[in-house]
Design brief:
By secondary structure, the chain is of the alpha/beta class. The protein has a single domain, classed as FAD/NAD(P)-binding domain. 33% of the residues lie in helices and 25% in strands. Strands 4, 6, 7, 8, 15, 16, 17, 18 and 19 form a nine-stranded mixed sheet that branches. Strands 10-2-1-14-21-20 form a six-stranded mixed sheet, with helices on both faces. The longest helix has 17 residues. The radius of gyration is 21 Å and the shape is globular. The protein starts with a strand and ends with a helix. 52% of the residues are buried. The structure holds flavin-adenine dinucleotide (FAD). The site of flavin-adenine dinucleotide (FAD) has 42 residues, from helix 1, strand 15, strand 19 and helix 11.
């Protein structure tokens, strides 16, 4: 039995994992490069808890769309024409997954993974984790009936886990959300979906972890991973050696380089997102709202309205391209006409950890006996944090718990990047 776990990365995935392993009775240390509370994607996101969106990013037609949008600096999807070999390999591998068979398999796997998501968030509250949690449902708004029908078809598989999307006319949508404009012609109402303030969730998890005795080492970037044979013995964090029996890599987009240090590189690369927070009160909403064709998420939080969107590949820093923010603001005006067209929001970015098949990587790192990975959650890291922690816990505790989780967890195994295609694919 493992007694002492070291978790590298204090984003929502690392904190959820730390919480769960501390509940299991392990002595847990969390190491993070940031000064204090998490500041990356786990804070800068839309905060949606959306099993209804159990769809992988690589979808039939997805990269074709990106290529058509290459010249638009405000498009919702963008692939930088970067010559970096890792970027090129990754995009080619993703392209291979943009087919109906991979997509359907991904939907099936993610839907099963999300089966208990709402229950697990309820359990967070029962455990005393304090966070801003809204159970008000979600609306998807479209300016064409055709797009609504496409999304409706995509949500059908989630009905088996109790998540439904009810089609509505534009007027029916406006009855629920009067701020939606006349350009909105059709939509879907997804009453089971929820949203949170992601910063409050991260803070709530960190507070609860501390109460359970988790030790935090902030301001320490892990720069090396030391092993004896198949066993990792320590990580070098801010120049200090941190030892443990078990290591869990939850470093978001940096999990790829860290897995390389541990001897087995995984293809995890950034998908940059943008967003801004509006406190003007020009628009008020009750539900979270998806601006369908524009691919923009709008989240009503207690003191502000959050807008988030864009998927940019080939960019790995936090710089804000104002054109992308303007693109989001313009879309907001189209669907929510009271949102001023001429607004020039100051915003933020978040780097989503992406994989070429669009599925998270959860489970043992090949080649090492005491390293687990939990990353690559793409657009669903908040939604999938508690169930990811459950799977990691099952790996650690073993026995019946591992047997129960095995079937659901299999499609997410890091092993899939070695099985047939070898190391080159992992570099992907
Ligand atoms: C615009 C946008 C909107 C989104 N909306 C949603 C949504 O509505 N719902 C949803 O479910 N998901 C959403 N997501 C996705 C979600 O935010 C991510 O999947 C999730 O935050 C990933 O969490 P993480 O813990 O894996 O990574 P991160 O949040 O990136 O955390 C990784 C941590 O590891 C640390 N770290 C990295 N390298 C090292 C190192 N070498 N040493 C020590 N520490 C290190 C970092 O400092 C960081 O704190 C959105 C993302 C974006 C960008």
């Amino acid at each position: 039995m493992t007694d002492n776990a070291v978790i590298v990365g204090a984003g929502v995935i690392g904190l959820a994992t730390a919480h769960r392993l501390a509940q299991d009775g392990l002595a847990v240390t969390v190491v993070d490069a940031q000064h204090g509370a998490a500041a990356g994607a786990s804070v800068h996101n839309a905060g949606w808890i959306v099993p209804i969106m159990s769809t992988p990013v690589p979808a039939p037609g997805m990269l074709g769309k990106a290529l058509r949008w290459m010249t638009r600096r405000d498009s919702p999807l963008y692939v930088h024409p970067s010559p970096s070999p890792e970027h090129v390999r990754f995009m080619i591998n993703m392209l291979r997954h943009c087919n109906p068979r991979s997509f359907a398999a991904g939907v099936e796997a993610l839907t099963s993974l999300n089966e208990r998501t709402l229950q697990l968030f309820d359990e967070y509250e029962k455990d005393g984790i304090r966070f801003e949690h809204h159970r008000t449902g979600q609306l998807l708004a479209f300016t064409t009936r055709h797009t609504m029908e496409e999304y409706r078809a995509a949500t059908a598989p989630m009905e088996r886990i109790g998540h439904t999307a009810v089609p509505l006319t534009g007027d029916e949508l406006r009855d629920l959300e009067p701020a939606l404009g006349r350009q909105v012609l059709a939509g879907l109402h997804c009453p089971q979906e929820r949203h949170v303030d992601p910063a409050s969730l991260v803070q709530g998890l960190a507070d609860r972890c501390r109460a359970l005795g988790v030790r935090f080492l902030h301001d320490r970037t892990v720069t090396d991973i030391r092993s004896t044979g198949r066993t990792v013995t320590s990580v070098l964090a801010g120049g200090e050696e941190v030892t443990g029996d078990l290591f869990v890599l939850t470093a978001g987009v940096h999990t790829g380089p860290l897995s390389r240090l541990a001897g087995h590189p995984l293809p995890i690369r950034p998908g940059k997102g943008y967003g801004f927070d509006d406190t003007s009160g020009s628009v008020t909403l009750r539900h979270s709202v998806y601006l369908g064709e524009a691919k923009v998420a709008v989240t009503p939080l207690s003191d502000r309205l959050r807008f988030a969107g864009t998927m940019e590949f080939g960019s790995s820093d936090a710089t804000v391209d104002p054109h992308r923010l303007r693109g989001i603001a313009r879309s907001a005006h189209t669907y929510l006409p009271d949102f001023p067209l001429e607004s020039h929001p100051r915003g933020w970015t978040g780097l989503r950890p992406m994989t070429p098949d669009g599925l998270p990587v959860i489970g043992p790192l090949p080649g090492k006996d005491n390293v687990l990975v939990a990353s690559g959650h793409s657009m669903l890291g908040v939604t999938l944090a508690p169930v990811t922690a459950e799977i990691i816990s099952a790996e650690v505790v073993g026995g019946q718990q591992r047997a129960d989780a095995a079937h659901t967890a299999r499609p997410f195994s890091p092993q899939r990047f070695t099985a047939r295609r070898g190391r080159a694919a992992a570099d992907g």
